[in-house]
Amino acid sequence: MSYIIRPFKPGDEAFLWEMLYQALYVPPGANLLPREIIYSPELSKYVQDWQKEDVGFVAVLESTQIQAGAVWIRLFNNNNQGYGYLNDETPELSIAVLPEYRQQGIGTQLIVHLLENIKNLYPAISLSVSLENPALRLYQRLGFEIVHQVDNSLTMKKELK
Ligand SMILES: CC(C)(COP(=O)(O)OP(=O)(O)OC[C@H]1O[C@@H](n2cnc3c(N)ncnc32)[C@H](O)[C@@H]1OP(=O)(O)O)[C@@H](O)C(=O)NCCC(=O)NCCS
Question: What are the C-alpha distances in Å from 45 to residues 74, 91, 161?
């Protein structure tokens, strides 16, 4: 499957909200989460008021132009923390690939592309992942390390310098 990775552009907002929903981990056998959950204050801040200065990339299939997945980062602050918040200088990564396109390397390539593009912008990036989420292996392979654990929720960090 051939795809390109390009930066977010105006008009991608609807896909970004879809990706936010797809990024939510649902353990095998559990009920799907209601779609409205992405508009809760804890989650909507990962997408709300997307600015062109925000950094994110979309994987687009070359044959059909279908958007298959996305990775993006957002900076939070002490008064408005994300789940993987470490400090005001460390943006938090979010990623999802549509279910039918998973396990084919797109997620890996999205993160590699992101890291290459932000390595001179930030000292490190973080993320939050559930202990049972198979994505944990992907993050460890790409050099993220666990820095906090609260129950089943892990915060991971990758130094960029
Ligand atoms: C995580 C995700 C973006 C990876 O994208 P991908 O294109 O499938 O990734 P790749 O093909 O490059 O790499 C496969 C790796 O993804 C992880 N993975 C596989 N299936 C997964 C799933 N259903 N959910 C989460 N991660 C998964 C595994 O680490 C896998 O490596 P492994 O086969 O050695 O175990 C994608 O699976 C996804 O969107 N999952 C659901 C949303 C999610 O969990 N997002 C992360 C929240 S922290």
Answer: 9, 13, 27
Cα of 135 from ligand 1 centre, angstroms? 5
Q: Output the six-digit token pair for 18.
A: 């879809």
Supply the residue whose CA is at minimum distance from atom 40 of ligand 1: 96
Number of C-beta neighbours around residue 151 at 10 A: 7
Looking at domain 3-121, which CATH architecture does it have?
Answer: 3-Layer(aba) Sandwich (3.40)
Q: Which of 1, 26, 103 to mutate to test the pocket of ligand 1 (most atoms within 8 A of CB)?
A: 103
Tens of pLDDT, residue by residue over 62-109, are 999 999 999 999 999 999 999 999 999 999 999 999 999 999 999 999
User: Does pTM surpass 0.90?
Assistant: yes
What's the CA gap between 5 and 71, in Å, rounded?
Answer: 10
